[in-house]
Design a protein that fits this description.
By secondary structure, the chain is of the alpha/beta class. 29% of the residues lie in helices and 27% in strands. 41% of the residues are buried. The structure holds ribose-5-phosphate (R5P).
Amino acid sequence: MKIFSGISNKPLAQKIAKELGIGLSPIEIHVFPDGEKRVRVLEKVVDEDCVVVQPTSPNPDADYMELFFIVDALKRNGAKKITAVIPYLGYQRQDHVFRSGEAVSLEVIIKTLEAVGADKIVTFDLHSIKIPELFHIPVVHLSALPIFAKKIKKMSMVNGQWSKVVLVSPDMGGIRRIKQLSEILDHVPYATIEKNRDLKSGKIEASVVHGTVKKQVIIVDDMISTGSTIVVAADLLSKNGAEEIFVFATHPVFSKDAHTVLQKSKVKKVFATDTITVPKEKEFPKLEVISVAGMIATSLSS
Ligand code: R5P
């Protein structure tokens, strides 16, 4: 197997390669003055199983274009099978038409990935479990929930009891995720918040909690973008009696000033994974990053 990395998350690609006991294969990615890229694989790939690691954040459009070019280069040079490891699949929130007149952006991405020659996709915690059905190639949909569960158990279980803990989904769309985590954690109680987002302004409101708020709250989400969902949820939970609020979110998209917003929020600690690399300038004291490299390596080698 040969592993190639785009530029979006080389540290993760290196960790995956290390777990597999191999090095990253060389690739040249040249950026022209106008921003266009030229990609060239620098190793023979004829009849090889090739893997490309490229989450599509922080620059979804540029990251996707680069991924398409790498897959194309591998295909043209005779790779037998190309697995695209896209730990964070950008555009996944645009998987259907919300308002008439809209494009279905995720479908465009899927068609292109398949057309350039990807044979298989490995990804993490998709926004909707229906997304793999939109592909015509196999999709391995991994989840960070088992890793989160281990951490939560260590942090919050006292004498085998969950007495002061509740898991919370910050929106109704996360119910399946929170139920799944509750099951892994021997049915720890859970609650959900009713969130509304104005599609035009992006403004978020949350006013109702379904379930009982306890002293320690663990908010679980698939991703943090601007941080607004978490801040609004934490404020509401704190008004309802939460004293200690932790967040577990798979994808640290961290757009705009999310890092500052989260640091200033009522949240005590934010746990996220390295599906997306967090640049130095966006790190903040309350953040702890957990690696998913081992899970990806296991999936690639099985
Ligand atoms: C939305 O449904 C997702 O699960 C996340 O809650 C959302 O994308 C987070 O976005 P933001 O951090 O901008 O509120």
